[in-house]
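Notebook p. 47: complex prediction with adenosine-5'-diphosphate.
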Amino acid sequence: MLNSKNYIALGLMSGTSADGVDVGMLVTNGKSKIELGPSGYYPFSKSFITKIKSIFKKKLNINKSKKQKRIIEIENEFTQFNFVAINQFLKKNKINKKKIHVIGFHGQTISHNPASGYSWQIGNSQNLANLLNIKVVGNFRENDIKKGGQGAPLTPIFHYYLTKEIKKKICFINLGGISNITYFNHESESSLNNMLAFDAGPCCSLIDDWVSKNSNKKFDNFGLLARKGNVKKKIIQNFLKKPFFSKPPPKSLDRSYFSLSLLKKLKIEDGAATLSYFVVDTLLKSFDYFPKNPDLCILSGGGRLNKFLVELINKKIKKSKIVLTENYNWNGDSIESYAFAYLSIRKLLNLPITFPKTTGIKKPSTGGQIFNFI
Ligand SMILES: Nc1ncnc2c1ncn2[C@@H]1O[C@H](COP(=O)(O)OP(=O)(O)O)[C@@H](O)[C@H]1O
Ligand SMILES: [Mg+2]
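Predicted complex, structure tokens below:
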């Protein structure tokens, strides 16, 4: 039967937190059959994080920037990092690379600006394919943006099929650098076109920036700093006045949209507490856009390890049951990398990855570009 074949794919994800690369392997038919395989995490060094963050830009001239020597150098280093990560992953899990049909390579976003017609991920897919002798799918956001979509979020279709057997109204919240939400109703046979998704607001990226600016730590481990701090409600009110929050979906966020200047000279603990409350307020605000209250919220992404943040979510989102992906034995650090493995197979099968209510694209559309090794 057409498309009933199973494929093995690897996904490489490095999100807006710029903390490192997640690798995930799965077997799928590109539709409802999904078997999650091993996954791994390869953190960037502190100096590489600083390097990557130095080229984040709210807005840039893409044609000019693509020729900039410094960016090209960082891109090459980043591609090499992904190559090494894959080799380590294959070795550790004793996987023969000939078995892998394709690699979904997200790349590192340095500027996301759909209103100006671009979302730029560094990472050279052609070089990666040549280095590995494996087909790579990259450039996942371009087609959607060209057709008028936000180019984000892209993972909803994966969230949808991953949870297909849980017959509930579900809200899947990925607590990454930016938090993104997918809402769907598996209770009734809802169509993919009813799936709703959008970026809710900043998450780990802002907390990380604050913590690393004021200490030698990379992030607020388990939320221990925030737990000791006092919340400055006025600052949250000012953050929430930004036009992004009154805009209905579809919408997506660039990690450079928010600045820490509002926090001024707060104590590190107070800043962490204020940002954590702000993150949860943005999640709560997102519930206004759902057609019905979800029965279940599933949390994935590094932010789910911030215990203080998860406690706050439980405290403030009372009408839904809150669980972590681990509740279903899915490694919450790897969901996004599995998603890009899945999306790469959907590209090979020419199946849609973005939808009117996920990115605002007019018609469901496929996305990604295939790079065969040479
Ligand atoms: N133990 C922890 N306590 C608190 N936060 C954590 C912990 N582990 C990871 N994180 C947060 O998760 C972030 C990484 O999450 P991730 O899902 O990889 O985001 P992204 O997709 O943006 O890279 C880290 O930058 C950090 O803020
Ligand atoms: Mg990450």
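Notes: The chain has 13 helices and twelve strands. The chain has two domains: 7-153+333-371, 165-328.
Next step: compare against the earlier run before touching the bench.
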